[in-house]
Amino acid sequence: MTALKQLPWLLLLAAAPVLAQHPTPAKAAPKTAPAAVSPAATPSAAQLLLDKSDLSFGIKQMGVPVEGRFKRYEAQLILDPKKPETGKLSFRIDLASATMGEAMADAELLKPAWFDSKKFPQAIFESSAIKSTGPGRFEVQGKLSIKGQSRDLSVPVSLAQANGVSTATGSFQLKRLEFKIGEGEWSDTSVVANDVNVKFRLQFTGIAPL
What we know:
Helix content: under 10%
Largest sheet: 11 strands, antiparallel
CATH architecture: Beta Barrel
Shape: elongated
Number of strands: 11
Distance between the termini: 47 Å
Strand content: 35-45%
């Protein structure tokens, strides 16, 4: 038998019109048209460096720690670290990419009792709020949806920057049964624990300096 787990901003910058007048001898100076307004500057989306990132999960089976990871996922992130409240994150995980390093376990994960990845190919997190909790630290609130089940989620994130790359790290815990992961005979939490620990280390380019 194989047991598993589950897991698993708009900076408006407008230049004010400039009115210029040029006096003409013996005549009232005609008003010139206002200067063009610069378009609003919107932070561009950050780019996820998938090959330098890691998304893993851990669970206990019969009291023994078991770990796995997801190989494919994508993130749409807009973030100004100085104004995180204007930020937005959409994160999608390809559930069929889950691996525990063993072929039989990986095949089991895709079945209806677990991720049911044919019917529900993605786990989706959409942020509703991002706030600063200290220098280089943020709290991302939003909703996580897996297998048609949605739950509110608050994720602490630490952000470090070096050589133009931003690294976001953090961890959080889920209850697998809230998402119907491990149904039927696998719902016995004495066999497979209900708690699932999710860890991430995601690298991005295109995030403004802290």
